[in-house]
Write a structure and sequence with these properties.
It is built from seven helices and seven strands; from the N terminus they run H-E-H-H-H-E-H-H-E-E-E-H-E-E. It is mainly α. It has two domains: 110 residues, Cathepsin B, Chain A (Alpha-Beta Complex), CATH 3.90.70; 103 residues, no CATH class. The strands form three sheets. It has a three-stranded antiparallel sheet with strand order 4-3-6. Strands 1-2 form a two-stranded parallel ribbon. Helix 4 packs antiparallel against helix 5. The longest helix has 18 residues. InterPro entries: Papain-like_cys_pep_sf, Peptidase_C19_UCH, USP_CS. Keywords: Cytoplasm, Hydrolase, Microtubule.
Length: 227
C-alpha cells in the first residue's frame, strides 16, 4: 500500500464508494465487532484521524501503520477492505495484548477500543463521566445500558443516550472531543430493539454537568433539576 492518505467519505462520494455488493470491511472468523467499530470510526469522519498519524508517547508504529495503510486508506479509497488486512491487525493486537483470542473469538467492541487506544496508541481517554456524587471516571466509549422500555419500539440514538444517562444517574463532566456510543446488546439470542434510527446530531445540553439550562416554566436560568 502507498503512504498516500485519503480523506473520509462525505455525501455523494460516500454513497458512490460505499454502496453495493463487496463494499465495507469483509468479515471473517468472528471479526464483526472489529469491522463495525473500524467502519464507524473512520469511513466518514476524521475525528479520530490522529490515531493514524500522531506519534503518541506509547504508540506502536507498526499497528498504527497497518490501521492506516491496510484498513482506513483502502476503505476510503475503494470502499472495500479484505478480511486478511483485518486479520493482520488482529494478529498484532494478540501479540501486544494480554489476550490471546483476538484472532478468532467474538469480543466486545469496548475491549478492542480500550486495547488499541490505551495500550497500543496511548491516547488520553475521550470521555469524562460522573455518576451522582462519586468521583469522575474516564473512558474511551460509552455503552448504552437500559431496561426494556415498552414505549420505545423504534428509538433514535438521542432517546437511548438520554434514557441511559438518566437511569444510571450519569452526566458528562465536559463536552467530549469525540463521543463513541455503543448501542444496546444485539446478539443471536437477544435483540433489545430490531431497529435504531441514527441521530445525525446529538444534543448533549441536558447531559452536561453544571451547564446552564433554562427553566421549563419561566424561561430564566434554572436553579434546580428534576430527573
Amino acid at each position: 500500500e502507498g503512504s498516500e492518505s485519503f480523506p473520509p467519505l462525505r455525501n455523494e462520494a460516500a454513497v458512490r464508494v460505499l454502496q453495493g455488493r463487496m463494499k465495507g470491511i469483509q468479515g471473517h472468523c468472528n471479526s464483526c465487532y472489529m469491522d463495525a467499530a473500524l467502519f464507524s470510526l473512520f469511513s466518514c469522519t476524521s475525528v479520530l484521524d490522529s490515531m493514524l498519524f500522531m506519534p503518541f508517547p506509547l504508540c506502536d508504529r507498526n499497528v498504527q501503520g497497518i490501521l492506516r495503510d491496510e484498513i482506513v486508506n483502502p476503505l476510503r479509497r475503494t470502499g472495500f477492505v479484505r478480511a486478511n488486512s483485518v486479520m493482520h491487525l488482529r494478529e498484532q493486537l494478540t501479540d501486544k495484548g494480554q489476550c490471546s483470542s483476538f484472532t478468532n473469538a467474538e469480543k466486545d467492541p469496548e475491549e478492542f477500543l480500550n486495547l488499541i487506544m490505551q495500550q497500543i496508541l496511548g491516547i488520553e481517554p475521550l470521555l469524562k463521566l460522573q455518576s451522582g456524587s462519586q468521583k469522575e471516571q474516564e473512558c474511551y466509549c460509552y455503552q448504552i445500558f437500559m431496561d426494556k422500555q415498552e414505549d420505545l419500539v423504534v428509538p433514535d440514538v438521542q432517546q437511548l443516550v438520554e434514557r441511559s444517562f438518566l437511569s444510571s444517574d450519569l452526566k458528562l463532566v465536559e463536552i467530549p472531543s469525540c463521543f463513541i456510543i455503543q448501542m444496546p446488546r444485539f446478539g443471536k439470542e437477544y435483540k433489545m430493539f430490531s431497529k435504531i434510527i441514527p441521530s445525525l446530531e446529538l444534543d448533549i445540553t441536558d447531559l452536561l454537568l453544571d451547564s446552564p439550562r433554562e427553566c421549563c416554566l419561566c424561561g430564566d436560568v434554572a436553579t434546580l433539576e428534576c430527573s
